[in-house]
Design goal:
It is a single chain. This protein is α+β, with helices and mostly antiparallel strands and 529 residues long. It has three domains: 175 residues, Sandwich (Immunoglobulin-like); 132 residues, Neutral Protease Domain 2 (Neutral Protease, domain 2, Orthogonal Bundle); 77 residues, Immunoglobulin-like (Sandwich). Helices cover 25% and strands 36% of the residues. The protein is built from ten helices and 29 strands. A hairpin with a 2-residue loop joins β6 and β7.
Length: 529
């Protein structure tokens, strides 16, 4: 008889998750950036930008060297530093390997402001291109760590700060950026200054600007948050129609999760490498998201969900990005469930399950994969669809009420802050009064899912079900709903699977017409029959 060693495997997983390094970014351990002011000058003659960034830093435990990310100039692309100041004096700094390493003056001041003056052409991060209608445009496209290509910053989500953009550009352009508009001034000589300020702390992965000829419209106001659309004038009516659903989505999330953190919700048609990019309060969508056919509701719901998860409650390590993408994936499904019913939830989960199974066959890895060192590689079907499926299973395990209470408690505690998977687990354990250690670990830190070979027969008033887990690497423990169908009536029974081979007898009145595994889509598994 083959012994079940899954508990040993799970213990190893627990130990490994405790000691594994989360990502390789070298953090400023004792220096915390409080705010950035990004002064940028854009022009139509070339793609060079002129920048002056003010960075205010809090030295938490004594004055210590700290560094900012900025991609240095090579032959064509990159930034060249002109000066770095500490207050009104030249700072002691070195620019090495795309890092501005600053040695502060030792004095009694724990909070210091630095000014970095620079110029250059960004290869990535700031997209300078023509729109599909031929208009020149400028867009920030920072995810995951491309802000360093055009902005001196701590380009990692662990260190969030308030943001201000001051954009000087040709006066013919409209300007939208992270935050609330606080100034728009004509400077003469064909130039205009536009300033936006966001007082909630934001990670650099989700800050942006959009500069081109826009048509803009107020779509509505939800809980004092203005919801707007910024689209190309050539397709303005289609864009206003396609993006109008954003007000309904925002209202749903505020009602069910908690307060919105940012000063506005702008929805922007953009030249972006992504389908949508969840920039804080300033979401960019791919150009062809505008069609006038209102087919981007799920995309809009996904990006708006990120305003809570990923933007406000932010993963503290790139390897835990499922706290952003898995949440946005499942909360899109929750929104769709609210709007269109439970069958829509099941339909979306069925589509996601197919993708998860297909992905696993080529990439056998867990949702939280500490072997990944490059943040550009953390996005996958695991972090999106499988992360969403994890939340669906968690909802079933602890119940709908506890699930929503836990979500609200987690968001309240980590709003405008950072969290790890263990933090989310702790909140869910508190509201559910359950120990979720093995549940979190087998679904998040162990690769794969149950692969089930099964059969059933009717014998003397009992439905006899035989279920085997055929995967070799791990034995999962889980509840499994059985749908017993007779005519139009389906009776649901729940069994507990806790070994490789399982046999169950369920009393029934007569032989079933058919038997279904997991008819309501609460378990991620592959049916091997």
């Amino acid at each position: 008889m083959k012994k079940n060693y899954s508990w040993i495997i799970l213990a190893i997983v627990l130990f490994t998750n405790t000691i594994a390094a989360q990502d390789t970014y070298k953090r400023n351990t004792y220096a915390d950036v409080l705010s950035y002011v990004f002064n940028l000058t854009l022009n139509d003659n070339n793609n060079e930008i002129i920048g002056e960034t003010l960075v205010t830093v809090n030295f938490k435990e004594g004055i210590t060297t700290f560094s900012l990310d900025l991609i240095g100039k090579t032959e064509v692309y990159g930034m060249e530093i002109t000066n770095v100041f500490e207050g009104d004096k030249e700072a002691n700094y070195q620019f090495i390997n795309n890092k501005i390493v600053i040695t502060p003056t030792i004095d009694n001041s724990k909070i210091k402001t630095y000014k970095i003056q620079y110029h250059g052409i960004a290869e990535k991060g700031l997209v300078i291109d023509k729109t599909k209608f031929g208009q020149r445009s400028f867009y920030g496209d920072n995810w995951p760590n491309l802000a360093r290509n055009w902005l001196p910053c701590v380009d990692h989500p662990y260190d969030k700060a308030t943001i201000e953009f001051a954009i000087t550009a040709p006066e013919k352009y409209d300007v939208v950026a992270t935050g609330k508009k606080v100034e728009e001034s004509n400077l003469g000589k064909g130039l205009k200054l536009t300033r936006y300020k966001e007082t909630a702390p934001v990670a650099t992965k989700v800050i942006t600007i959009g500069v081109t000829k826009f048509a803009s419209k107020l779509l509505g106001v939800v809980n004092e948050i203005p919801v707007t659309a910024w689209v190309y004038p050539e397709n303005r009516l289609d864009g206003f129609s396609d993006y109008a659903v954003a007000t309904n989505v925002l209202e749903y999330y505020i009602k069910n999760i908690g307060p919105y953190s940012y000063s506005k919700l702008a929805n922007i048609q953009a030249k972006t490498q992504w389908g949508g990019l969840e920039n804080a309060g300033t979401i960019t969508y791919f150009e062809n998201s505008v069609s006038g056919k209102n087919k981007v509701e799920s995309l809009i719901a996904h990006e708006i969900a990120h305003q809570w998860f990923g933007n406000s409650a932010t993963e503290n390590s790139w390897n835990h990005v499922w706290l952003s993408e898995g949440f946005a994936t499942y909360f899109t499904i929750l929104y769709q469930e609210e709007m269109y019913g439970n069958e829509k939830r099941k339909e979306e989960l069925a589509l996601d399950k197919k993708q998860i199974i297909a992905y696993y066959k080529k990439n056998p890895s867990p949702i939280v994969d500490n072997s990944i060192k490059d943040p550009k590689k953390v996005l996958s079907t695991n972090t999106y669809q499988k992360g969403g499926w994890f939340l669906n299973m968690l909802r079933y395990k602890i119940g709908n009420e506890a699930f929503w209470n836990g979500i609200r408690a987690y968001y309240k505690k980590y709003r405008n802050s950072n969290a790890m998977t263990a933090d989310f687990q702790k909140e869910m354990e508190m509201v559910s009064n359950q120990n979720l250690e093995s549940f979190f670990n087998q679904w998040l830190f162990v690769k794969g899912y149950p692969e089930l070979k099964w059969s059933w027969k009717y014998k003397r008033g009992n439905l006899v079900i035989e279920i085997k887990q055929t995967q070799d690497h791990f034995t999962f423990n889980f509840p499994l709903e059985i749908g017993i169908k007779n005519g139009e009536i389906t009776k649901i029974e729940t069994i507990e699977i806790n070994s490789k081979s399982n046999s169950f007898k369920i009393p029934v009145e007569k032989k079933p017409d058919s038997v279904l595994l997991d008819p309501d889509f609460w378990l991620l598994f592959e049916d091997k029959n």
